[in-house]
Amino acid sequence: MEEVVIVGAGIAGLATAVALKKVGVRALILERSNELRATGTALGLFANAWVALDTLGVSDKLAALCSPLERGYITDVRTKSIQEVHYRPSSRNGALPRAVHRKVLLEVLAEELPPNSIRFSSRITSIETQVEHGLSICIVTLDNGTIIKSKVVIGCDGIHSIVARWLGLRPPVSSGRLGVRGLSVFPKGHGFDHSDALQQFVDVGRRAAFFTLNDKEVYWFFGATCPKDMEKEADPEMIQREVMEDLAKDFPPLFLDIVKHSDLSSLTWAPLMFRYPWDILLGNLARSNITVAGDAMHPMTPDLGQGGCSALEDAVVLGRHLGDSISKHGKLETQYIGLAIGRYAKERRLRAATLVTASYLSGWLQEDGSSRIMRFLRVVFYGLLLARVVNGITEHDCGKLPSVSSLPSCESESSI
């Protein structure tokens, strides 16, 4: 019997476990892989993410490992024109965007958890609920026959979430674009200034970007509307060759050189998926004592860099509402859990749907068409509106967790 079971040890799963620990609730994380996964290689963390990380108590530790990004440059591949974008410090916490290794973020979050909080190589086969003594209990079955009972189940298991499917949410759909990601290594140093090494290259149906992670590593991304799908099991050399010799062959030499220096083991490609915003607004984000967070709730295209940021927001909001279900004995009160999860889902619906919509529209503006109207919209968006949109979205404050001292005391228990 567990207090809370979290499915998936990604950003949302680990952050949610940390948030629950902050309010005195123990969580067991079930991860199907045999270690922390770093799929995606790196991500940008904007001001809204730093608000959440500060609440989780890890912002100082993480900020010491990555440099702030003060400005970026957007190059039009066809006209060669370059526009400069400035990222102003957040009015809430003075934070600037920072680029971070995904695995570093996962490790920092995992270090905040008690020993044995994560059970690796745990693949879920079914979820169900039943009533015991008048209270709803969640039952999770693993592929090895293990049965775990829990007061709460939180699905943080990505875009193909088993928990989201159990809730009845419709599957994510393809945006019509594919994304290629990689990490490039320059043993003698890449020579970019960390404060302004966020660069984008845009063209009809194609967009590329890169940012520095440290003195020797650069993360890069390439997205395109592409009628020709790569093979699902494409080998890294083929992915690299496809980008350099076909998809981005006319992009600036600066970008192609970064792709050339890729660590082949880091190269991945995948269709860019998202969930229709109306499914988020109207769908079952929670039922009984079961809910979802992160990509399991709101998969989105990467065009505004908000996937990981919004997952961190989810964790704090969920921890805040579940913290209200703590009894005087430091336990989750089962009869109040459904109400707490319902309040969480209600609070996150509009925010998540807005982020999904804004990200998709950002990508759409450079996805198709070379008409004068589309060219005009691209110039207006990238030249005049992008920084405002990003700054507006990233000013969001997900709130604070109640301090343990303000909650009823609870016995110290380690996770199974």
Automatic annotation (TrEMBL):
State a single Gene Ontology molecular function: monooxygenase activity
Matching entries from SUPFAM superfamilies are given as: FAD/NAD(P)-binding domain (SSF51905)
UniProt keywords (A-Z) are: Monooxygenase, Oxidoreductase
Boundaries of every FAD-binding domain copy: 3-357
Q: Name one Pfam family in it.
A: FAD_binding_3
**UniProt xrefs under InterPro entries:** FAD-bd (IPR002938), FAD/NAD-bd_sf (IPR036188), MOase (IPR044560)
* Record PANTHER family: FAD/NAD(P)-BINDING OXIDOREDUCTASE FAMILY PROTEIN (PTHR45934), OS04G0423100 PROTEIN (PTHR45934:SF1)
- Name the protein family: Belongs to the 3-hydroxybenzoate 6-hydroxylase family.
Name the chain's protein.
FAD-binding domain-containing protein
**Which species does the entry assign this protein to?**
Eucalyptus globulus (Tasmanian blue gum)
